[in-house]
What does this fold into?
Amino acid sequence: MDSAITIEDLTKVFDGFAAVDHVNLEVPKGVVFGILGPNGAGKTTLLRMLSTVLKPTRGKARILGHDILEEPIKVREVIGVLPEDTGLYDRLTPAETLLFYGKLRGMESAKILERSEVLLSLLGLSGKRDAKIGTFSKGMKQKVALMRAVLHEPDVLFLDEPTSGLDVMSAREIRGLIKDWASKGRSVVLSTHNMWEAQQLCSAVAIMDKGKVVSVGTIEELERMTKQEDLEEVFVHLIKGEAER
It folds into this structure.
């Protein structure tokens, strides 16, 4: 299977501390791939490097063949990003937000409107298209940020804790969009603390601890390797093993 993402020896050092330490990974096309780990494992730093927000200290990565250091503009054209902090403008409405970011990406107004209506309907916000985002709940803001990330129909989607702190219905709708995205041959890379969610969504996962990838594989492979019954038990087993080394 062709790779959407290849990562070789990717490292990020802050003041002598390796937040991401010699990571090597390959993410196939058309899958939901989970980056799992405790707080401080390096998940967000890894995603920020892959999305060209942070420059690596060393190593390299390619997104659909584009080098993150040599071709950052090309990379940004083919990815969508949902950061941990949505960074939305409270004074704008969802419709205005999507128009603003669509124009930044060079999309035609008619295409922006068409995509906006589809996404607002899909995520249950059609009735709030002209309401100020500052009046929205966390779940509603997360939906707007996700719509912004997928507006231009990117082939690779990076999601940092996409359902953290959300109500049941909002989380369910976002999971539905993630599944739909991957079913169309696109790739989704998500970081999460939610092992149940990762078990439901992910074809494969990488488990990180202290900046390193501890283990990587399909959930079934990791369950067999560790002789555990589900992903949460796999995670605990591997992280405890690292702590005892």
Observations:
- The two ends are 35 Å apart (CA to CA).
- The CA atoms of residues 223 and 229 lie 6 Å apart.
- The beta strands are 3-14, 17-28, 32-36, 58-63, 66-67, 79-82, 156-160, 187-192, 204-209, 212-218.
- The first strand starts at residue 3 and ends at 14.
